[in-house]
Design a protein that fits this description.
The longest helix is centred in the C-terminal third of the chain and has 18 residues. The chain has a 5-stranded parallel sheet, sandwiched between helices. Helix content is about 40%, strand content about 10%. The N terminus is likely disordered. The protein contains 9 helices and 5 strands. By secondary structure, it is an alpha/beta fold. It is elongated, with a radius of gyration of 19 Å.
Length: about 230
């Protein structure tokens, strides 16, 4: 296992399964390719990606941090939906890192101290030649940014809209994640989970994690009756 990326003293870590390999590209192949090459010499200094909750934004930001660590580079993942109630002191000296991944940036937009902190952090990262990856629920120009200079900075980089998966692609994403876990997920079982479970990918993958633990414990294959029993359906 690769060593952990630089992390906050607050203990924010990365999910082990959040990798580029476990992300189904579908309509986001161009974005996945750009992110996988962001740390190259000619990679994009600043990538902004946006999409609906549960579309895989957090997965990709954490995957980028794992990829940085695999190259012996220092990365930091900042989920602002969890950390935004703190003052932006965590942004100090981040230009010492190779990659900074700021998740759910829209959760702090409109707050003076955070907007100013982000503005200065973006400038320092650019001046130091480091990489920045940002996610939000809306495109840069759709965010209600109060600080004009920050609004300008958000248009510096390349912007991607994370395309949602249709049901067929959700099924493929579930089966990809199952294979990575060493599980066999038959089509009919995957369709049952997709029909009966949540529509959010994060929730579907959490259900797969529960099934993985249950099947290992019971030494059972994944069948519809077993899924009903394990998930309490």
């Amino acid at each position: 296992m690769s060593r952990a990326p630089a992390q906050l003293p607050l203990g924010v870590g990365l999910r082990d399964d959040a990798t580029f390999e476990s992300f189904l590209p579908a309509g986001n192949a161009g974005l996945l390719d750009r992110l996988s090459r962001q740390l190259d010499v000619d990679g994009e200094p600043f990538v902004y990606l946006w999409g609906a909750p549960g579309s895989g934004r957090s997965h990709l930001l954490q995957a980028a941090c794992h990829a940085a660590t695999d190259r012996d580079l220092r990365a930091l993942y900042l989920p602002l939906q969890e950390l935004g109630h703190f003052p932006p002191l965590m942004l100090e000296d981040i230009e010492r890192l190779d990659l900074v991944a700021i998740d759910d940036m829209d959760s702090v937009i409109g707050r003076k101290r955070w907007e100013e902190g982000l503005f200065h952090a973006f400038n320092r990262l650019r001046d130091a030649g480091k990489r920045l990856l940002v996610s939000a629920a809306a495109a840069p120009r759709q965010l209600p940014v109060k600080l004009p200079d920050l609004a300008s900075r958000l248009t510096w980089g390349v912007t991607f809209h994370l395309q949602p998966l249709d049901d067929s692609e959700r099924l493929q994403a579930m089966q990809l994640r199952a294979r990575i876990r060493g599980m066999q997920l038959p089509d009919e079982v995957a369709r049952y989970i997709l029909h009966r479970g949540s529509r959010r990918l994060d929730d579907l993958f959490e259900e797969l994690a529960v099934l993985d633990r249950a099947s290992l414990s019971a030494q059972r294959k994944l069948t519809i009756p077993f899924v009903k029993q394990a998930l309490g359906w």
